[in-house]
Write a structure and sequence with these properties.
The structure is a homotetramer.
Chain A (H helix, E strand, L loop, with lengths): L1 E6 L4 H12 L2 E9 L7 H10 L4 E6 L1 H14 L11 H20 L3 E3 L8 H12 L4 E3 L1 H5 L3 H10 L13 E5 L2 E5 L29 E8 L2 E5 L2 E2 L2 H14 L4 E7 L5 E7 L1 H17 L2 H19 L6 H13 L5 E8 L2 E8 L8 H4 L10 H10 L1 H10 L4
Parallel strand pairs in A: 1-2, 1-4, 2-3, 4-5
Antiparallel strand pairs in A: 6-7, 7-12, 8-9, 8-13, 9-10, 11-12, 13-14
Helix pairs in contact in A: 4-5, 8-9, 10-11
Chain lengths: 399, 399, 399, 399
């Protein structure tokens, strides 16, 4: 019989998908990837899949790979979609597919199923990754195909012995992983509504944050954080610890109107406390260590990497070439940034790089230690302004 | 005799420049431009120039022109140098020169003098503007040419009846205008030193801010703020009021290592409370009203405008062409943003645009009101991923 | 009954579409737009539509509007898709739709039909334009929906009294207008096959071109050609004359592997003789009249405009904003370029601009007339190289 | 005594520089680098330096390194300054300095001298490279400092036993190497003068070219040419052979008004026959083998690399990071391009890539072999056009 690997979350939608795929003639292999989702009992989820009809069920630990191969480039590339969103959900999709394709190959499955709807970005990210990694695999997108009302879905669940959560459904649609949490739908669908406190889970309201700041030193090697206050830790641990600490200070809330790849605008609430701390510190250290022309051009590559992540093109030659640029640029991004976490903000208040600082106090100073050749400036300005000078002499636009 | 127009500030440097220029054979016409500098008595400054030897002395009101022609584009173009600095000092330089050239033409002066040192950006901004507006004008840069120690300058001042400020000199080098305040030098020259509280003047420390937020509605027309809480005000007034209100909440502090045009890195402390509020609100409203492709490309133009401002190329055909793009883009940026000012942060918490919102709740919703055609998605994804699919089939980089 | 406006070409495909649309319950209004297609009798085509079942049939003259609003921006923006293709077919699609929507509004039609297949770019260009201009109009794409073999189509044609061309079908798929001619399919589908001579219609093989060059002077105003050898002519006339003259010299052949928007690579043969002459001359005049920084940044905008044209996004706010930039840039592109047409090449051999040349012989010269301040250079170089100098001193990458 | 290494060419200017540097107290070490200059007897030049006063004189073979490290990136990056100029002179400068710095270190010299004037790009390229490779080295630029008329220079030469070339001085200023030849000055200084035949040396006038085309197959590996007609050759040999063959066909003439880094426009005549053939073929092969998104973004990196070369920033971290991108992109640029050389043009007439062609005839074909899913197109278009559709529905700009 025809096996299919399902990206399983344990929720109602992907649980209902199991009997639905069985009805279509599939043996369902459920797989849930641990990318640091908050408060989930993954072995319970693994069992639940079997309960509702899966023939096999796997939990795959992906946290370290997620941090290293997916979050790392985001840090190095200062990747914020539309200047704000650190790509939380966009990062897990290609890794989930990578693992599902591996399971498909191991189990002999010929198809992959995902639980995305037809109007979001995740369907694109899932399916583009499948096409890239093994285009021979068939794709099922049951939730996109259901066309059910909520009531019809519950009826179908009851008919097929899928447990239905008791009580009122959460008004929100949530996705989370190690790097943050995304929330949409419900009252948030009106952009003129302020996001209510129950929309947030990882961060305190600024009104509820401590009146004492936390100050910490974050050490970077090649653009990646490697230590907090001098203590070396894994990237996963650094992110986990900073999520707690910065969350307590209300850091990392994002409220944005976003352009989805599928062509609509949506309103999203994100929380990414560790991301806010790490990315602020990283950028600050780059200001100290990157040569000017590189620093001024790198945002062009950063924007491209961000777009490729968001648009589901992680497995692409353009991503790889762009990351070759980024990695080269990060060789000198070594040093320490002192961060203050306080009242909703992560602020870089001091920074140093023993080996790679390009800040030269003797060039920059206004004291007598000045080693800058001020005489050069006059010549510089003359040639600097020559093209516009000639332009005005000829065309008299501004004079 | 040969007249020269001096960009006069009232400080020791430009005061000493007056006898120095007289020694070089000039009749000095002093001119100070009101661009909203804090706490300066401009008519006293006007008189002081005459006291120390100027033959004529002018105060020119430039605040409205400054707001309209120099700050306005910064708002519309989300212009933040190196992602952080709202270009405070870079904005006043071309306007100062514009006014000085006018005075030169009116008074028959054949030269312009400015008080910049030889290692900053301002000398470039001043001189590039002079070359653009009237390349026949000679340029004097006395401070760049002094080569004096502090003691020598004071001795020269005393010899020439220039009043020397009593007491310890401020350790900082400061420039300010309506749009904000820049501070450098002194203890700030070590990037590992945290900026002390006496480095700030417009903003409260977050520790000292009110425990009650201020929430206000900012209305934009064509990308520019026109009203606070529904009350129409001039751009100058809006900025002045927000500087006070947001300053009280500790909003708008910036601490950065910056790449100067002259090739060195410097450490700068900026305060720009109104800028932080207005620019955050503006960007938020753009998220609601700009079409996606335009929104994603506009940052390329924004970066160019920012660079041109910073590098002293305001009077240039590239600036004009880039602003033609920006102005076209801003025709639809109309609406209201609700801003919360609290504990050092200006946050957009809600936004609406009656006439130009592209957010369509019926497309975005997860409720039954959904009008999005989910079936289109499958076809979209197939073509979207076709190039990378074929690439992987041929090259097997990731599979 | 329900009216539909059909973009009619007179060929078999769109002729068969008429009875097919009638079968679907439409009254078909045929419309053919004159955009300078070669060798077509448009009134015969108009009649043919009626013969095969259209209820109304229109020929619309679009040549001047095509030249002014669609070709003009291509010239000013040096728009060459993937560096080579002057966008011939991409230009006519949005204009055709504009006219069809007008006819729909006049005739009360509620739908538009186009004759594109499902694997080309033109379907996207047609439908995106329809959505932009009137999203309430329904869209029919009969050729995309036929799923017929060639034999089935001919049978259907015979059954419905649609005349079938006698003799062997051309092996090529051709589209042409004032700005050039596109050819694909047949033997060209193998990129290793050299394009045979019968693939070309507007240009002579270089082997057959005259042994005497033609030299002409092309005058531009605001970036558009306005005269040949001093004689003012309309843009349409200039293009038509140059197509003949440059075609005789074998100029304007393009053979390229192209990335289509729908995700596949195709092999295309283009001929665009006038485009080759005009665009070469235009670029050459820009080299003389555009200020350096503008000249170096303009290609970024050019690439965007080219992409928008190619991808069917002419009616978009990004196109409009980008053209605002381009138009501003072209104000100074006035002058004359001397072009030599010979043996397949259009070469700019001399150029002048009385009012806007930025070439200053006294600055450029190596004679004694030199007015360039060579002393400035040393200072310029010092500051120019300061960032990389410091970088190497710290990091020792290259030394 | 203080040693200085002089970049020696054997011409009058750098010969006169030797006694001039001696007068300044230097021991002059002359060094000439072989980068494939045409028709020069380098050992005679080596001897001449000693004759006019150098204490040591070296000829350094740099051709292979020049081809590999300087020309190779130009090919892979399609680097054409301002869309036309393949960077001939810009490429040799950093290599010359690299070798001169090595000689300085070996001979204990503390200074380097170059023969550039004060108004060209080469002085910047020389000095920026010196600053990058060893900022402790002093720099002398005698020609920039001479301020001599031609007569004064000749008198100085005669006084110091420097042989003065007999007969009329060439009206042109020429630089050449393996990659091509640059020519400026004289009658060329008027852009309205057509370049006379005596301005060219490597290429025949089209009027004088053979009436028979040459057709050859150029094989590329990782974006670099490795064989002609299947015969493997070194990059140096391929360039040398193509310079002769393509030069005979009049290929590679460039006539352009150029924006120099020092702020002036100049008129330049270049010849680069091999470059025209190789770069045309390379681009054509990229069209076949590069994935679309990569192909469309790569020009951004290409423009940056070109600019860095031209502006003397080869030794910079931005160059290195950009080349990391390029090298990654070139891994799949393997295949063969059939080039026709005829009447001044190098044309790609066929191309194939056994291992990396992304052209899929079954996707592209209009025959029954079609494997493209045309049904997907309708869905694609709907989402593709959704942002502009909503924009028009709200804003009615075009409807």
């Amino acid at each position: 019989m025809n096996k299919i690997v399902l990206a399983y979350s344990g929720g109602l939608d992907t649980s209902v998908a199991i009997p639905w795929l069985k009805d279509k003639g599939y043996d369902v292999v459920a797989a849930v990837l641990d990318v640091g989702q908050a408060g989930k009992n993954l072995s319970e989820i693994q069992q639940k899949a079997l309960n509702v009809g899966a023939v096999e069920s796997y939990v795959v630990d992906g946290k370290d790979e997620f941090a290293k191969d997916f979050v790392g480039p985001v840090i190095q590339a200062n990747a914020l979609y539309e200047g704000k969103y650190p790509l939380v959900s966009a990062l897990s999709r290609p890794l989930i597919i990578k693992k599902l394709v591996e399971i498909a190959h191991e189990t002999g499955a010929k198809a992959i199923a995902h639980g995305s709807t037809g109007k979001g970005n995740d369907q694109v990210r899932f399916e583009t990754a499948i096409h890239a990694l093994d285009p021979s695999l068939a794709i099922e997108a049951p939730i996109r195909d259901f066309h059910w009302s909520r009531e019809e879905e519950i009826d179908y669940a009851k008919d097929h012995n899928v447990p239905v959560p008791i009580g009122k459904k959460s008004p929100y649609s949530i996705d989370d992983n190690l790097w943050g949490r995304a929330n949409e739908a419900g009252i948030l669908e009106n952009p003129w509504n302020e996001a209510p406190e129950d929309a947030f889970a990882l961060t305190a309201a600024v009104e509820e944050t401590p009146d004492e700041a936390d100050v910490l030193e974050l050490t970077f090697k090649k653009g990646l954080p490697v230590a907090i206050n001098g203590q070396e830790k894994s990237l996963v641990t650094i992110i986990e610890e900073l999520n707690v600490l910065a969350g307590k200070h209300g850091i990392g809330r994002i409220d944005k109107i976003e352009n989805r790849l599928v062509g609509i605008k949506s309103r999203e609430i994100y929380e990414a406390p560790a991301a806010a701390v790490i990315m602020t510190a990283h950028k600050d250290l780059e200001d100290l260590t990157l040569e000017r022309d590189l620093a001024h051009f790198k945002p062009v590559i950063e924007a491209k990497i961000t777009e490729l992540y968001y648009n589901g093109l992680y497995f692409s030659p353009l991503f790889d070439a762009s990351m070759a640029f980024i990695e080269k640029s990060q060789e000198v991004v070594n040093g320490v940034v002192k961060m203050k976490l306080f009242k909703g903000q992560a602020t870089a208040i001091a920074r140093q790089s023993e080996s790679n600082s390009l800040y030269d106090e003797n060039l920059a100073t206004y004291t007598d230690a000045d080693s800058f050749d001020q005489v050069s400036a006059a010549g510089f300005i003359k040639l600097w302004s020559l093209p516009t000078t000639v332009f005005e002499q000829v065309n008299h636009i501004h004079d």
